[in-house]
């Protein structure tokens, strides 16, 4: 059986990391049995989560895990799509992972209030005399990567403005369809769902979340995906709708 290594439940989400969420949803899409274990990034061959163990082989990075699933198990995540639609799906995936994702990082890690509420607790188990320094160093490293991503070079409003342009593109692509590319889910839906759920979780307050919530079709899409792939999880926005 495949073992998926991730962070686990937290921040009002079934999985803290949008990249682990992507892989977990793709495992569900492929109908593969797996078990999940908690891990931290240093345990991974590439220093990041997710990674999987499968018959003695370790594969790190969500995109390479997808390629492994397709190659070993013969599952085509984009089976319903034309060649042109496959290319478009890949372009949207790159936009999500290299632009939208960094906006999420800024909201969680660079915002001091959200950092203290969320990621700072990753270090709760550290020795007392090291804990504050580890938190400070981690936030600094992430903020540095945020700067290098390009979004961090702009002001707090400007970076959200840029992220919203990408989210607008996603909303236009989705339209009134059930999934990004049509009537059936594809691999990029797992990517989009992971990032959008990470932004929309009510655990964190941010201008990014507030403006994303204005895209009604994106919020409804996350609700549908949550019901389909995590039916056991009490997704707060769905509970609020039902109240």
From TrEMBL:
<dbReference type="InterPro" id="IPR026928">
    <property type="entry name" value="FAX/IsoI-like"/>
</dbReference>
<dbReference type="GO" id="GO:0016740">
    <property type="term" value="F:transferase activity"/>
</dbReference>
<protein>
    <submittedName>
        <fullName>Glutathione S-transferase family protein</fullName>
    </submittedName>
</protein>
<dbReference type="Pfam" id="PF17171">
    <property type="entry name" value="GST_C_6"/>
</dbReference>
<feature type="domain" description="Thioredoxin-like fold">
    <location>
        <begin position="18"/>
        <end position="114"/>
    </location>
</feature>
<dbReference type="InterPro" id="IPR036249">
    <property type="entry name" value="Thioredoxin-like_sf"/>
</dbReference>
<keyword id="KW-0808">Transferase</keyword>
<dbReference type="InterPro" id="IPR033468">
    <property type="entry name" value="Metaxin_GST"/>
</dbReference>
<dbReference type="InterPro" id="IPR036282">
    <property type="entry name" value="Glutathione-S-Trfase_C_sf"/>
</dbReference>
<dbReference type="Pfam" id="PF17172">
    <property type="entry name" value="GST_N_4"/>
</dbReference>
<dbReference type="InterPro" id="IPR040079">
    <property type="entry name" value="Glutathione_S-Trfase"/>
</dbReference>
<dbReference type="InterPro" id="IPR050931">
    <property type="entry name" value="Mito_Protein_Transport_Metaxin"/>
</dbReference>
<feature type="domain" description="Metaxin glutathione S-transferase">
    <location>
        <begin position="164"/>
        <end position="225"/>
    </location>
</feature>
<dbReference type="InterPro" id="IPR012336">
    <property type="entry name" value="Thioredoxin-like_fold"/>
</dbReference>
């Amino acid at each position: 059986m495949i073992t998926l290594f991730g962070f686990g439940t937290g921040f009002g989400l079934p999985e803290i990391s949008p990249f682990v969420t992507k892989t977990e949803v793709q495992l569900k899409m492929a109908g593969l049995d797996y078990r999940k274990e908690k891990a931290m990034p240093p345990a991974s061959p590439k220093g990041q989560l997710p990674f999987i163990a499968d018959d003695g082989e370790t594969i790190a990075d969500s995109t390479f895990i997808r390629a492994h699933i397709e190659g070993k198990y013969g599952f085509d995540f984009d089976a319903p799509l034309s060649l042109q639609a496959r290319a478009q799906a890949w372009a949207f995936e790159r936009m999500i992972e290299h632009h939208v994702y960094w906006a999420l990082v800024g909201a969680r890690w660079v915002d001091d209030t959200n950092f203290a509420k969320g990621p700072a607790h990753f270090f709760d188990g550290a020795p007392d005399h090291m804990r504050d320094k580890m938190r400070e160093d981690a936030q600094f490293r992430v903020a540095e990567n945020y700067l290098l991503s390009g979004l961090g070079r702009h002001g707090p409003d400007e970076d959200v403005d840029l992220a919203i342009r990408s989210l607008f593109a996603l909303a236009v692509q989705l339209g009134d369809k059930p999934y990004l590319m049509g009537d059936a889910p594809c691999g990029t839906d797992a990517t989009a769902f992971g990032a959008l759920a990470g932004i929309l979780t009510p655990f964190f307050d941010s201008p990014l979340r507030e403006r994303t919530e204005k895209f009604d079709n994106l919020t409804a899409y996350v609700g549908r995906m949550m019901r389909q792939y995590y039916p056991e999880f009490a997704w707060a926005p769905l509970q609020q709708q039902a109240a």
